[in-house]
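Task 17 of the worksheet. Students: predict the tertiary structure of the chain below and write it out as structure tokens. Keep your answer in the requested format; marks are given for formatting as well as content.
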Amino acid sequence: MLSICIPAYTHIDYTAEAISALLSEPEDFEVIVVEDFDVVDSNAEIHRRIVHVRELLNSDRRVVWQRNRELRAIQDNWNCTVALATRPYVKLMGADDRLCPGGIAKIQTMIHQAPQAQFHGHLARIIDHMGHVRRLQRPYIHSRNFFATGGAEALQLKLRQVARFKEPACNVYTKSAWQRVGGYSKRYRFSFDIDFNIRMMRENACYLWNEYVVDLRRHAGSDGARLPPDLAVAELRQIINDVYGYIGDSMTPQDNAAGEAWFTYRVIELGLARYRARPRECIDFIFRNRGSMKFSLSSTVGVVRTVMRRAWRKDVQCTLP
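Model answer:
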């Protein structure tokens, strides 16, 4: 029923941890790993760790793996890994993430309870580089364990940051739906996962679940931690405009206000992520983007409340050393 797909980009030790967590699950599922460890600058110690990971990959018949002979663009690597899946449902995980105990059983329950859904979203625990749990993602909705959406409604909820579908490791989708939307696109460099989620939401029946299934690791070596903030802002503006276009005639003034609030919050968040290390850079970044932020009373209150809540809970990732 399920393929877990892991494009392993250099994170040798984290990959071993991710595979060990998966192989401790008793259910029948498939693990697809495409790794590029041969292109890592190697010494005797690194070679020993690579051998250990490959021994893990060979230790269980549920694992299928192959080596990259050259570095690919991240979208190509992700699409290549998903293309190798032979089960109808796919979960793509980063090699630095980790399945929570019992995660496979939770995914199977979601699929059995909503067989009509092509795209599932769930929650994650946020862990640090040592694997310690730092916080839990907030539930999608407090009144029940799941809700269904799709089409224009899902996109409107996306603008309000309700139907977020969060990081790629928090998604489960059918391989057929991945094929229909054309997989992960190179149109965006850093926001291609958001773009993929939006295209999936637009075209498929979607379910969002208040279930904690994976551990998402925050660490300075991740691709997102090296995100150039100006590129992130430009890509987010284009993505929001895409959503406006997809909604079309159903677009409301409230949708526009929600989209602008999302953009404003993201600019502030990107600045705050740099504040502890470089306060001047934070101030300069926000000041430089002030003209692109649109404030209304309702959106400003929402942005301030969200930023203050996250700052109080130390929920803003500092991505710089």
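Marker's comment: The first strand starts at residue 2 and ends at 8. Residues 253-272 form the longest helix (20 residues).
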